[in-house]
Protein: Endonuclease III
Organism: Paenibacillus pectinilyticus
Amino acid sequence: MTQKTVRHILDTIGELYPDAHCELNHSNPFELTIAVLLSAQCTDETVNKVTKDLFEKYKRPEDYLAVPLEELEQDIRRIGLFRNKASHIHKLCQLLLDKFGGEIPEKHEQLVELPGVGRKTANVVVSNAFGVPAIAVDTHVERVSKRLGLVGWDDSVLEVEKKLMKKVPREEWTLTHHRLIFFGRYHCKAQNPNCTLCPLLDNCREGKKRMKPKPTRKTITNK
């Protein structure tokens, strides 16, 4: 894929979603980290409903540790995998107090030390909370990137991230991450992508396949 084609894809998605942003509600790096941790295999909409009350009750790491694990589980039970996530939050808060002075660290390599925080979560936190350019690859980013041919069909999540970082200008990494998510969430959906109205159909391997006319079956009549 040429750089001109990459530029065309980025600009087209940018025109569709110029104001793309992180849709997880938060007011500080700590809340963002908790919200992203909760969002694994769960919609941002559901997470925001849960964190509306959660962030009123728990302000600091100490607050989460002050209640039994079972109580926290009940507070987030609408979230998928809530027991595992409650356990991660407890352990994360304890580590923050033991090692980082109760504050979310700004460095990527320190963030991934936190329980429940993987590479994707760390990328979201450094880019949205601390302004460090990063591309977090979630299901939407991966799906859209593969359909549009920005990366290979068989590329791993890490390979997708590395290839996008090479093709997208560094100063656009964070914004591109958000725009790819919006494009995948609201237009190029997993099950029912809006191929008929897609301005990038010519670039989309999946779209061309879906829009290809199906051969009609000829009926044989006996004379």
Remarks:
- Residues 3-20+135-210 form a domain with the Endonuclease Iii, domain 2 fold (CATH 1.10.1670.10).
- The mean pLDDT is 92.
- The chain is about 55% helix and 0% strand.
